[in-house]
Amino acid sequence: MREAAGVLERRWTMATIYACSSGASRFNEFRQSLPGVSPTTLSERLEQLEQAGLVERRTVAGRPPHTEYLLTDRGERVAVVVAGLLQS
After folding, report:
1. Structure confidence by residue, pLDDT tens digits, 1-46
2. What is the rounded distance in angstroms from the CA atom of residue 3 to the CA atom of residue 63?
3. Which of the residues 3, 11, 33, 64 could staple to 19 if both were Cys, CB 3.0 to 4.6 A apart?
4. 2-87: which CATH number, 3.30.1360.180, 3.30.365.10, 2.50.20.10, 1.10.10.10?
5. pTM of the model
């Protein structure tokens, strides 16, 4: 829990969780919904959220194969709180 709380205080983390709350998203979809975030920062935040157990990274077979990010059950619970904070 401490790790998840530590991740949440970093810049762009709550906005990334909020963007992910609408369903599975690809990296470029995140970039479009989060103007101003650098690709490096977004990549770091997604990795940190994955390590904290809030986001799952899934590789989808296809032509070309692609990667999607979606909230875990734990991430969904955090997203409810984040949505409340961002809407107030």
Report:
1. 566 667 778 899 999 999 999 888 999 999 999 999 999 999 999 9
2. 36
3. 33
4. 1.10.10.10
5. 0.86
